[in-house]
Specification:
This protein has about 350 residues and is α/β, with parallel strands linked by helices. It has twelve helices and 13 strands.
Length: about 350
């Protein structure tokens, strides 16, 4: 059995991770930490776990976790992992970080977009970006995995085949994405309070969202050159889910069937990526509670553009589910182990 430690178990992503790992046949949750709830039972924080998970929550102690666990999940925001994950920790255990500390290879870019000092620069060379469908071969056997962001997972995978095959003008890429409120986390914030976000849709962090350089860096690897995109996120009044509508100008006229063949080339054998039928477009309700990414597209012959739509559950494929998928790869398990979650509907 793989012994797992969860740092930040009471956040939305941490809670989702607990739900998934408790159903994983090869995992034992060895320790759970939560700074604000030390000494409380997990089912006191989340009543849905009553008499199911009564684990007492601990204070974070990385040295102790490294001794006890085969893998540590850092389900905390940016700025934490870089301060506590060290080479000594990684000699003893594997770390999968939900935050952004090790996603960008250039620490200066990280500091520019996140406005904090990066204290783990020496580990950036060894960290692997955990986008499973792209990097599974280099994830195997590594010690430090940067779990991708939610917007980024949906956007990168939706566009990557077009970029990798040089089918679109890279200067024309626009990503218009919508997220449920859980993407803002469980902390108290005025913008995510019910009265502030219900019955309203709003764009935020226009031309300045922190996931922008992550999308650009990863699509740049696929293209073999630097990319600059326009990325605009929106907050919509639902609990969970991300819908990314991506636009780009095709370099030459293409039929639906030609584009579909490209996506089949990249994703035809991928269990967690589902391509919709012609004329059917992804909806967040069809992936909720699952590790699936649904992708659909339309070729606009009038404008010469292609519109690609991707949908994920931000807490599963965009966070905890992808983290477990990474863990499965790290330990040589079938990627689907513990993740054959049928989307929940209605919910």
């Amino acid at each position: 059995m793989i012994k797992a430690g969860i740092v930040g178990a009471t956040g939305y992503a941490g809670n989702e991770l607990v739900r998934i790992l408790m159903q994983h046949p090869e995992v034992e949750i060895k320790s759970m930490t939560a700074h604000s709830y030390v000494g409380k039972q997990f089912d006191e924080v989340y009543e849905n776990y009553r008499e199911i998970n009564e684990t007492v929550l601990d204070e974070m102690n990385m040295e102790k976790l490294a001794e006890e666990c085969d893998v540590i999940f850092m389900a905390l925001p940016h700025g934490t992992a870089a301060n506590v994950v060290t080479e000594d920790i990684l000699k003893k255990t594997k770390v999968i970080d939900f935050g952004a500390d090790f996603r960008l290879k250039d620490a200066d870019i990280y500091e520019k977009w996140y406005s904090v000092e990066h204290n783990g620069r020496e580990l950036l060379k060894t960290a692997v970006y955990g986008l499973c469908e792209v990097n599974r071969d280099i994830i195997k056997g590594k010690q430090l995995i940067a779990n991708p962001g939610c917007y980024t997972t949906c956007s990168i995978l939706s566009l990557r085949p077009l970029v990798a095959e040089d089918l679109v003008d890279l200067k024309t890429i626009i990503v218009d994405a919508k997220s449920g409120v859980s993407g803002a986390g469980r902390g108290l914030a005025l913008a995510s309070m019910y009265d502030e976000c219900n019955e309203s849709v709003k764009a935020y962090k226009i031309a300045s969202h922190r996931h922008t350089p992550e999308i650009e860096e990863q699509l740049g690897y696929a293209a073999g050159e630097q990319i600059t995109i326009t990325f605009t996120p929106h907050l919509i009044p639902m609990n969970r889910g991300i819908l990314a509508t991506c636009y780009a100008t095709l370099k030459k006229p293409m039929t639906y069937e030609e584009v579909k063949a490209v996506y089949e080339k990249y994703y035809g054998k991928e269990y967690f990526i589902r391509l919709t039928k012609k004329g059917v477009f992804p909806e967040t309700r069809w992936v909720k509670g699952s590790n699936f990414l649904d992708i659909g597209f339309s070729v606009d012959e009038r404008t010469g553009r292609i519109i690609v739509i991707g949908a994920i559950d931000n807490l599963v494929k965009g966070a905890a589910g992808q983290a477990v998928q990474n863990m499965n790869i790290l330990f040589g398990l079938d990627e689907k182990t513990g993740l054959k979650l049928v989307p929940v509907f209605p919910a």
